[in-house]
Amino acid sequence: MKPRKQTSSTPHIRVAPSGVHGLGAFATCDLPAEAFLGLYEGRRYTQQEIAARTWNDQLTYLFTLSNQETIDGAKGGNGTRHLNHACDPNCEAVEEYDDAGELLLKFQTLVAVDAGDELFIDYSLTADDGSTAEKYPCHCGSPNCRGTMLAPVDAD
Ligand SMILES: [Zn+2]
């Protein structure tokens, strides 16, 4: 297998076959907690543009921000799009505004990780189309696995 071309924006991530699902993102070196991993990059869509499209939902790399903009990591994205879900993650996604007022999504470690560790975030997906939890099964294997990548349902 040929080594993937690295983007300079994610120097601490290497993309390789995951132990859980498809490709995954792995730490290239030992990292402390709260180490910056990279920005979620890709084509941006407004909420209206997203609603007007039909998506192949199993194979897209869509990440919707709190301002309802969506980033499609499949178009111009970097290695961060291969971060897999785990219910007990070692990384997290954090939103941050840049100087130009654009909302960015950055990934950072939650805890210290070792070189070669697979990196995970908790997707906490929300299924706008009313999909059931079974449609997004989780196989992360952690003791507190919810069994789904959907966000925990709030009791109301
Ligand atoms: Zn899980």
Automatic annotation (TrEMBL):
Superkingdom of source: Bacteria
Any single GO BP term: methylation
TM ranges: none
Keywords: Chromosome, Methyltransferase, S-adenosyl-L-methionine, Transferase
Location in the cell: Chromosome
Broad class of the protein's primary localization: cytoplasm
InterPro entries: Post-SET_dom, SET2_Histone-Lys_MeTrsfase, SET_dom, SET_dom_sf
GO molecular function: methyltransferase activity
A GO cellular component entry from the record: chromosome
Domain SET: 11-124
Domain Post-SET residue range list: 134-150
PANTHER family, alphabetized: SET DOMAIN PROTEINS
Protein name: SET domain protein
Organism: Variovorax paradoxus
Lineage: Bacteria, Pseudomonadati, Pseudomonadota, Betaproteobacteria, Burkholderiales
